[in-house]
Amino acid sequence: MQLNNCIAHNVLCRDPPATTSALLRRLGLSEYHIRRFWSIAKNKIKNKSNTVTIFKHRNVLFKVEFEIRLGSSCLIEPAAYIDEFDCQEVMYARQITNLNMLYVYLKGYVNNELFIKINGVYLLKKLMDLGEVNSVNSIRTIAKRMLEKSFSFNDLTHVNNLVSTLLRFNRELKEIIIYVPKNDDDFLRLIPPLMDRFHQKIVNAES
Length: 207
Fold this sequence. Notes:
There is one protein chain. This protein is an alpha+beta fold. It is built from 10 helices and 6 strands, in the order H-E-H-H-E-E-E-H-E-E-H-H-H-H-H-H. The protein has helices at residues 2-8, 21-26, 31-46, 84-87, 120-129, 133-148, 156-168, 170-177, 184-189, 192-206, and strands spanning 19-20, 51-57, 60-76, 80-82, 94-110, 113-119. Strands 1, 2, 3, 4, 5 and 6 form a 6-stranded antiparallel sheet that branches. Strand 3 (60-76) and strand 4 form a beta hairpin. It starts with a helix and ends with a helix.
């Protein structure tokens, strides 16, 4: 929804929240389930289980991590929540205070030192700006399958889409991620959640 909002209102979306209580409400969650959502998210942060490693090569790690903030954001009616930078440029946006907001970031580490942090919505928006619709759809599908623990060999086509995208931007990405996967197998090897998933499938098949 937030990605679609960024596109519809033609804003950069440098650092918008991934969701707020109002967005959850629009998705059909009841007040009970919204409170439960924030309770679970806060507990995950407290237990330091709010991070997933999605890329590992030697001493380089990339993680997806979510953060929660209580504060203010700008609203473009009916439900586009934008960051303070875009807020200054959109005359019809209004400030909303006392919001629970969840942010999703892609973070890169070298020797456990943070060297890059990118808002997830912004990253998807940049891919769309570059015409990478298939890549965005593949990210959506892979994320959904991983959350549902249903990723299968049939979903490798989405992995292939991402590898193709990485190879198209090989020169630019080498400045950021050090190593760009050469093929699907290489890509899977570098992504712990997918590798673990396929390893488990092989073990189950052999059993």
